Amino acid sequence: MHISLHKQVALVTGGSSGLGAAAAQALAAAGAAVVINYHSQPEPAQALAAQIIAQGGQAVALGADVSREDQVERLFAQTLEHFGRLDILIANSGLQKDAATVDMSLADWNKVVDVNLTGQFLCARSALRQFVAQGMHPDISRAMGKIIHMSSVHQLIPWAGHANYAASKGGVDLLMRSIAQEVGEQKIRVNSIAPGAIRTAINADTTSGDAEDKLLQLIPYGRVGEADDVANAVVWLASDLADYVHGTTLFIDGGMSLYPGFRDNG
Ligand code: BGC
């Protein structure tokens, strides 16, 4: 079974590090031209684009804050200038600003919701407009376009001390399913990926040392995930092999969402 995204253009928001960078690499390896969006640090995004190009792929790094309407519109316009079309959006940008709810500032609430939820809405809206403007191209893909929202196990699992983050991801779930219900008949496929504990910068403190042992109690499969575990699923979900997968969330979490605390309790 061979997955090819040849002739397709993918935009990965938050593509300069972590899951986004791994997804960009994997999409490029499958033959897609990749736009690597970054927020504040151009260097790693540009280095990743250069690496993809050196390996014979196509890539460009473009800056934009996904929570800003004008910047998102510019990002999509620049994507078209570079590659002429868009087939795949990976709405991946996300951040955490953790605090107990009693101590959480409105600024930290707003920041997380603005990036993790409003940012996904703004990018999905621009992608939908572009897919419709392009129309169907069966020689490129069976779908008119594909959107993958990067969610989290915390769209399902409540997370004390992270109410802003969990609320934003719960919002992503119904955003994704509502858009999917809306645009399925246009043959635009919309899905989410919900990673569990994956070793990236966002959770470096909980995935190493003693904290890792504690974390493993929450993962029935017995290991912390790697960014490629998620990137491999991104490529499959974006490809025609997943053409009948629509409006669903793929949990990639080693079983974290099985509530393993109930194994010997309840
Ligand atoms: C968060 C990680 C966390 C994981 C499991 C993810 O959505 O970004 O920081 O380790 O959920 O709790």
Question: Can you put this structure into words, describing what you see?
Answer:
It is a single chain. This protein is about 40% helix and about 15% strand. With about 270 residues, the chain is an alpha/beta fold. Strands 3-2-1-4-5-6-7 form a seven-stranded parallel β-sheet, sandwiched between helices.
Label this structure with key terms.
266 residues; alpha/beta; Rossmann fold; 7 strands; 41% helix; binds beta-D-glucopyranose
The gist of it:
This protein is α/β, with parallel strands linked by helices and 266 residues long.
What CATH calls the topology is Rossmann fold
Low-confidence stretches: none
- The H-level CATH homologous superfamily, spelled out, is NAD(P)-binding Rossmann-like Domain
How far apart the termini lie comes to 43 Å
Q: Numbering strands along the chain, what is their spatial order in the largest sheet?
A: 3-2-1-4-5-6-7
Mean pLDDT: 97
Provide the domain count.
1
Number of helical segments?
A: 7
What's the alpha carbon Rg, rounded to whole Å? 18 Å
Broad shape: globular
Question: How is the secondary structure organized here?
Answer:
Elements lengths: L8 E4 L5 H12 L3 E6 L3 H13 L4 E5 L5 H15 L4 E4 L14 H29 L10 E6 L12 H21 L4 E8 L13 H8 L10 H12 L10 E4 L14
Parallel strand pairs: 1-2, 1-4, 2-3, 4-5, 5-6, 6-7
Helix pairs in contact: 1-7, 3-4, 4-5
The structure holds beta-D-glucopyranose (BGC).
